[in-house]
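Before anything else, study the sequence and fold tokens given here and see whether the fold suits the sequence. Record follows:
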Amino acid sequence: MLCGIGKLPSTIMDRAVVLELRRKLKNERVLRLRYSDPAHFRILARKLARLAEDRGDEIAHARPELPEALNDRAQDNWEPLLAIADLAGGTWPQTARSIAVFSAGEDEDIETSTLLLLDIQDAFNGMQTSETILGKDVKRMTTQILLGKLCADDTRPWATFDRSGGKMMYGVTGN
């Protein structure tokens, strides 16, 4: 497991299953992991050890169906996780494959600046009204409104992009 702020080198990112985290927003509440009962972790560790002992060979020799949408390296990265999902059964096999395909298709190395420009363009494209200035139709909005639109999408990093400990960007909450 590797962690970092920003993007790690592409040679590492391409050989990994990437979990992107974001700072929690002011209005979000989370349970503190450090206050968890240590017994939960001991029980989980025992269950994982038992799973490895009982089914480890089955998982090691499994050849799960790999989504064609994944490139070769992504298939290599996801194969053991898909084998475990298949073993778990139920909705896990389809859920795991959907997540694998979704994560592989996400902004294939789109630079942050390009992503921001695309989101700004979407904000303006979503406007219903425009003004006529010097004979031309022009869409415009205040910085505060634009920041509010950018921060409204919690799948994007803009709400906490200033790295201020989960606070909204300047202008959105009147900072």
